[in-house]
Amino acid sequence: MALLALSAATGVMALAQPAAAGSDDGKFGIKLLGTVVNPDTDATVRAGGAVIPGASADVSTEAIPALTLDYYFTRNISAELFCCFAKHSIDGKGTIANLGEIADTWIFPPALTLQYHFTGMGRWQPYVGAGVQYINFFDTGTGQNRLGATEVSIDDAWGFTLQGGIDVGLGNGWSLNFDVKKTWLDTTVTWHNNAALGGVNVVGDADLDPWIFSAGVGYRFNLDGLFGHRAQAAPIK
């Protein structure tokens, strides 16, 4: 699925370039990114309702392709929709570290942020942003399953996101992008009917709080340039 996102982004860029749609002041933008998702995990783990002392969990760091879609309301204000797909493993930590991988899951984590861009610095355009991120967990497995769980479920969750980054203009709508996001997000992981513990459920209340580091290439354009100049586009303010 990540490859689908990569192909879609490449296709849009390929369509835009021949049409001479590229503009450093374009109202629309797309970025193709290499991204590292680094969850800053802390968890409280319970078995049958009782806290397991010293038990926690760790979610793996993953490197993936990602893309953004951008819309510029003015020169300074824009909205960004970020998305990707990633597969993470969840490992026991602390007093349950000997259990190894205790779950694995795919995530779909779109983030929507409103950004403010600082202008007047030539081709350097730093920005800050804030918004929300939603994480959908799917195709969740039991990992090495030393607990003997029949299945693992993870609750979908919403979180608050802060963002900072910089675009470095290359001309004709193209730019390099460097970006970092931090999301604060809580979820609940449940291991069902664990044979190693007499059939009780194990529940982990987890603070995922991921850092998302990205670098890649961006392209800004106007739709009139993409589909033909039927009318003079109003300049972005």
Report on this model:
The protein has helices at residues 2-16, 223-227, and strands at 28-39, 42-47, 50-51, 55-59, 62-72, 77-83, 86-94, 101-108, 111-117, 124-141, 151-154, 157-171, 174-194, 200-207, 210-221. Helices cover 8% and strands 61% of the residues. Strand 9 (111-117) and strand 10 (124-141) form a beta hairpin. With 237 residues, it is mostly beta strands. The chain has one domain: Porin (Beta Barrel), CATH 2.40.160.20. The protein has an 8-stranded antiparallel β-barrel.
Task: Note the main attributes of this structure.
eight-stranded antiparallel beta barrel, elongated, disordered N terminus, Porin, single chain, 2 helices, 15 strands, about 240 residues
Instruction: Using the alpha-carbon principal axes, give the shape.
Output: elongated
Structural class: mainly beta
CATH topology: Porin
Major sheet details: 8 strands, antiparallel, barrel
Poorly predicted parts: 1-19
Mean pLDDT: 88
- Tally of separate helices: 2
How helix-rich are the residues, as a percent range?
A: under 10%
Do you know the CATH architecture?
Answer: Beta Barrel
Q: Beta-sheet strand percentage? A: over 45%
Return the string of H and E elements: HEEEEEEEEEEEEEEEH
CATH class category name: Mainly Beta
Give the domain tally: 1
Strand order within the widest beta sheet: 1-5-6-9-10-12-13-15
Quantity of strands, as a count: 15
The whole-angstrom Rg is 21 Å
- End-to-end distance: 37 Å
